[in-house]
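Input.
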Amino acid sequence: MHRFRSRLALALFLLAAGAAGQAAHSGTPDFLFEIPPVTGNTGESVAIAVLLDNNGPDLSAWSVAVCHDVDASTLLAAEAGATTLVANGGSAPAFSELTVYEDGFVAGVIIHLFGANVLAPGVDYELYTATYSIAALAPATVPIEFCDDTLPLISNRVVDTNGDGFTPEFAHGAIDVVGPAPLHFRFSAGEHTAYYDNEDGEASVAVPLSILEEATDVDFPQGIEAFAMALRHPEPYLTAVAVEIAAPLAAANGGAGPELFVAEFLADGVFVDVVVTSAGAGAGFVAETATEAVVVTYETVPLVFQFNVFGIDLELEWADDLPPPAAPNSVEVGGYFIGMLEPVDGLLHFERRQKLRRGDANEDGALGLADAIATLSYLFDGGVLDCLDAADSNDSHSVDIADPIHLLAYLFQLGDPPAPPFPDCDFDATGNPACVDYGACP
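Output.
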């Protein structure tokens, strides 16, 4: 710590020594400087208080020196406590100064230059507060101590109204580091649309499962060393048939991908256990934004969907009660398993897929001027189309003015033909937009 050379040093040197020839008493049980212990996690900020118990005479001044281990904690701020702020009859002291150093802080007070106001006997006087950032890894104890041997001119001392200086007894403080910094991750299954053939009830859908870390985390972003996922699906409707590593996870470990990837298929769910890396803190899978980690492919149970003309919505639910994981739906960072924030369940929209002929908006089985007129009527005159997908001549995934223009250009100006399915009836591979019914296909 740097040697202290300010007006505080001079003032405290005088007050600590007391009047010339007056006694200086050490380790006096009438006075206690105390720093109550606090708890915190690695990476967090915690506040401590410097307290005084005065079981002796009225006091006119005090000085404090508090030190900490710079490798285990960082002093972010220190300031006058509640008692110091109003010690001078409800106002600030006549003299009060505090200086922060890398490894501690020193402070001192003269309440009133002529002794008009004093600090009467009492306990739990809050002289100062300080905030520290915890660097030590859990479990650990970080000492916050009163230190008289660091600065020759500044000592932990109280002075009474007679000018006598006293060294209090000390109850040193500590920060008990009990765990890692709180981290916040979220799993998401998202919302997806799939299309089934109502004649055979068959459909499949690939669902990416993503991970997101909150940007407010300490040392964001963290490297995920391992994670476990457990996702339930409605058993009567779906079967999980495949689980694959998504591209971002495959790129982890310098492109080598995860060290361990295990997927287990259950009747009503799927469980995935992944060890990304065993290299330790700082390595692993980073999820600064919602980042795909795993892709699960589901297939419909045909008998349930067959002849269903209305479609159906199904939920995928993150579930901690699916066997067999010991820590389901969690990530491992720094050797600690961390539970999830409220995850985002999945929602699958299954819509019936119709055979259709693209461009045949009026469903008469042939393309002509009447189809363009039917589309214009839908757009501008409240007309009804049962199969919007058929009217989407340019396959832009929406029906708008470009579709009748595209169809007329094909019919009369040798323009591009409608997108498949055309000219024969078939299923739309892209599945957009809705088609409630199309009656012109066998």
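The longest helix spans residues 369-380.
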